[in-house]
What does this fold into?
Amino acid sequence: MRGMRLLVKNDSQITIDIGLIEGYDSTDKTFSIHLLKTSRKAVCSIPAYMNGTITIGGSTVDRFTQSEIEGFIGEYAVVLNPATSPIILSVFEGD
It folds into this structure.
């Protein structure tokens, strides 16, 4: 029983927060986010699914254009581990 308590005590807990995207830095490709649950600011890289290119009809295009990424300012993001190493899991619209 003592070993179980030790395992639970040392287990790192994954936390999730939702934040409002306040800005975008195009040189570093990062969003500045105001986290709602913890009331702190975070700077996160854009999600991996926004990076890279795709091929359509033989031509290569960006998955998201610069203006599309900037269009997410004012929207919400789900952030994993906001206190230690924040990572954006998803970006969504809020009404």
About this structure: Strands lie at 16-25, 30-35, 40-45, 53-56, 59-62, 76-80, 87-92.
